[in-house]
Amino acid sequence: MTSLEIQGDLPDSISANQIQSFAGHILDNEAADTDFEISLLLTDSATMREYNRKYRGVNADTDVLSFEGEELDLKGRKVRFCDIIIDTNQVFRQKGTNTYYEEFWQVLIHALLHLASYDHTKPADKKKMEDAEDNYRKLIPGEFKRGY
User: Fold this and answer.
1) Domain 2-144, what architecture?
2) What are phi and psi of 15, to 5 degrees?
3) Does the pLDDT value for residue 57 go beyond 50?
4) Which of 4, 69, 90, 121 makes the best surface tag, with the fewest CB within 10 Å?
């Protein structure tokens, strides 16, 4: 089970229920033996730059940061406490030919896969993560809905 708390302003046409449902779908598929308690912060570029500097030592813009927190065993069930921070301004700046809606979901998918222990530092891991991202992009809610 995935529980999500959202702070900040959601983009138009994206609801908290859509995010909750989609996050649950991805994490149930990728880490079925773990429950997730996620705090999602939607913020501006200056705040994100500060988080990036503080936690990664990089004084630069980034679209998303994911933090896998402590994992506890609660009554025989693993619960992982996690944070995701998304810079909604950066999402807009980097969208290219995507709509803002598409880019937001792609960034969120990327963050959720990190919480499910995906990584992209090694070529083989990067390929595995990209394949999973492609798979979940086909399921983006709303106008891009395909079998979700």
Assistant:
1) 3-Layer(aba) Sandwich (3.40)
2) -105, 160
3) yes
4) 121
